[in-house]
Amino acid sequence: MAVCDRCGKRAVWRDTESGEALCGEHFSAWYEHLVAETVCRYGMIPAGSRVAVGLSGGKDSTVLLSVLVKLYPDTEFVAVTVDEGIADYRDETIRAAETLVKRLGVEHRILSFADVCGKTLDELLAAAPERACSVCGTLRRRALNLAAREAEADRIATGHCMDDEAQSVLMNYLRGDITRVAENYKTNAGDLFIPRIKPLCRCTERATVAYGMVNHLLTSLPECPYTRYALRAGVRSELGLLEYTYPGTMLAIVEGQEELLAKLGPAVGEVRRMGVCERCGEPTENRLCAACTLLAKLEERG
Ligand SMILES: [Zn+2]
Ligand SMILES: [Zn+2]
Measured in angstroms, how far is the CA atom of residue 16 from the centroid of ligand 1? Predict the structure, then answer.
């Protein structure tokens, strides 16, 4: 039986890079410290913040909300759940989200795609299921921004972990989307656009799931039926394999991207002025925002 290198109790975790074995208690402390360090390093939660936490009810966001509430007892949190309208999937995760907020004593808001654009994701995608993740992502960003603004939050925290970040970097390359790769500016849209923070961006998904299990936060939930259409699914499994064989690959990708952006120089810290969308009034750099552009395209397709 493997034992904890720090206390000798039964180990539940072995770090792939350092080889250190940890018991549930010491692993949890290690994970929470990693989150606190990330929040501090990027100045994510200044004193007196009111933070909206995107809570899908899935693994990552469940761990995110639980850890933030534990680490920052003096900060106000409001959980925001976006109901995309995905049959046989969303209802269960919403119930999981409701159980969690009740236990943590956190304010909870639920906003549906139908509230935001009059249709459910299933209705929007009837003609184009292969576009699920980009449509969903764009509309969810808008819904989160709206809900956070209504909740008078000054930050939106999302549960993106290091795997998500590394996948996104690779996906931009795989699509040849060098504009995105080199996207490096701060936007200024006044009070309309609520800044995003990703407190789990230095935690692997493996560690995040382990934390959820050790702390009895996770129940088994269905997987989103649209994932199989996504490029991300392929990148996720390939990258997972690489990380397993060569531990530290994901961290190298994420840190490499940060270094690239720092080296790009003059654009760093450039503030781009945003205007508002002609159709919906949400912040955008163009005439129409990303969500309205997408909805218009889907309408054309019928
Ligand atoms: Zn221990
Ligand atoms: Zn718009």
Answer: 17
